[in-house]
Amino acid sequence: MKLVRTIVRAFKFALQNFWRNIWLSIATILVFVLTLTMINLLIVVHVLTQTAVQQVEDRIDVSVYFKRGTSEPTILEAREYLLGLSQVRSAQYVSSEEAYTRFTQRHRNDSSIINALSTIESNPFGGSLVIQARAPEDFEFILEALNNPQFGDAIEQKDFEDHERIIARIRSVTDRVQWFALGVGAVFLVIAVLIVFNAIRIAIYTHREEIGIMKLVGASNSFIRLPFLLESLIFSLVSTLIMAAILLPALQVLDPQLSAFFGTASIGLTEYVFSNGFLVFGGQFIVLAALSVLSASVAMSRYLHV
Amino acid sequence: MLYLNEQEHTTAKKKHQDMIKLHRVHKEYHPNITALCGIDLHVEPGEFVSIVGQSGTGKTTLAKLLIAEERPTRGRIVIGGWDITDIHASQIPFLRRQIGVVFQDFKLLRQKTVGENIAFALEVAGEPRQRIRDVVPQVVRVVGLHGKEDRYPNQISGGEQQRVVIARALVHRPKVLIADEPTGNLDAITAHEIVDLLRKINDFGTTVVLVTHDKDVVNRLKRRVVTLKNGCIHTDHKVGKYVLA
């Protein structure tokens, strides 16, 4: 009971410290919020990178065109063979008729192509397979596997674009963005720690008379220290709450636009943050609180002689 | 405890009777700056002792040693049977709750009312709210500040401010009250009122150590007077007067 009383009273003193140095408190919280912004930007960039890479990976396929006259069972046999490979995610069969229909549909507004096609009496397209791999690096193996003598001779063309380079480029750009955000975040974190140090130092200075009286009338050392530690926790808590109040609406606005950009139903950022809010913001609060308590402790050991 | 003979028993009994005991206490700030040189002082429970002497004779150093604000270079200090010579920092708050301290410069919190300043000593010690509500009005009445609980320090006189400090020192019901120049900032009439209050507190059984260089105050008291000179006890009279050392 006495412990609870002591904590409640120390919390009251901590709030008094907070209000009496309100401008310093605001400055500290501002830097904390900027630090958290950088950290959250890092998280968002990471999610967007993953989404972008996934989008590109989903679109990578290799089209295998079979010679005209290759029978459907041969192509389906090749499809079955490919599906049996662990590296193949899907293999879609496109018949020669379907290929013809798709071509005419695609070029329906280009009369010259349609006219040229009509001059050919028979369907010029052969059957094809559209193959998707589980990972971009699997394509090399798949292309090699297509040289199987059972149907290798029936293949007219393999259409494969080197998507690995595109993915590598996306990763390179986003890695740089992440490193930049990480660097700026680290700088803000150092500034935040120094500001907390200074805030506690000033709080000790402005309360030196009160601290002296506390010592005189028998306040324990821990009771004198506790308000300063609680004050640093208040800084962390208020900053995290402000960050949450900024980030959640911002994500709700951004998410549909990002989803439209990536052409997906939802990036899932908002859902992720809402469903893991305690983890996301709790984790940020714990890191911030640990750093600020450490900083406050160093300031107290230097300036609070109890 | 087993005593070998009557004399040892008497000595041991006397040891326990001493509220304050200083045994060959030295305090040196630097090898060539000696504040106190081998002080031997015994104060019995309920005594009223005035420590007098000119400025720089070690009066305030002695007061600081009694509240463990300073440590002796050599010697032993025992308060109420508790040897505080090498007191651990974590134990000092418990000592200070048993010793009331009054200073010349009041040390009141300007943004707190009279009542809040007095309650502050109990709040920081973690006392329950109900006990604070009970104790504060009692000590306010003892020091004669009834009706002024809601005033701020700048709304009351210097004498009243010193009464607030005394009230704050009394809330823990201390065994010893140490007053270091409590009348230093007060006019003669108010100073006498404060000394009367200290005498009243002493009558309740609290041991009072008054550190002062106010001749009128000491002579009016007609109690024990210990005179310091160059950090040493020059005279110690049971019923003494202020004599320039």
From TrEMBL, chain A:
Keywords: Cell cycle, Cell division, Cell membrane, Membrane, Transmembrane, Transmembrane helix. It comes from the Bacteria. Its main location: membrane. It is found in: Cell membrane. Residues 61-147 form the FtsX extracellular domain. Residues 184-300 form the ABC3 transporter permease C-terminal domain. It is a multi-pass membrane protein. Pfam families: FtsX, FtsX_ECD. PANTHER family: CELL DIVISION PROTEIN FTSX. This is Cell division protein FtsX.
